Amino acid sequence: MEATRRRQHLGAAGGPGAQLGASFLQARHGSVSADEAARTAPFHLDLWFYFTLQNWVLDFGRPIAMLVFPLEWFPLNKPSVGDYFHMAYNVITPFLLLKRLLYCL
Q: Its domain of life (predicted)?
């Protein structure tokens, strides 16, 4: 009896011609109109530019900076210039993602 009730609920959420997987997702996560489902997310050109610039400067610039800066400035018991670039990459990326999150709200 429980299985019959569950089947009726899934069929009602997806409509008469819906596929089983789609009706399950709609029953579980709420139904959306066809226009909302077909609409694509906007492309964030500003974030693409920030991530590209960050990648070029901090990833591709790391070996160049290691050649430019003297090795004496970075003793072996301290991080090298490449390590600082890597740390900057790891710190800046979450803030760019946070900008994306706040941009959507």
A: Eukaryota
Whose CA is closest to 102, among 51, 44, 56? 44
Q: What does the block give as tokens for 11? A: 């069929």
Domains in the chain: how many in total?
1
Alpha-carbon gap, residue 84 to 39, rounded angstroms: 41
Q: Spell 45-80 as b/e; 16+ CB within 10 A means b.
A: eeeeebbeeeeebbeeebeeeeeeeeeeebeeeeeb
Give a yes or no: residue 9 inside a domain. Answer: no
Q: What span, in angstroms and rounded, lies between the C-alpha atoms of 89 and 99?
A: 15
Query: Residue 51 sits in which domain range?
Result: 23-103
pLDDT in tens, 63-105: 898 899 888 888 889 898 888 988 998 898 888 888 777 777 6
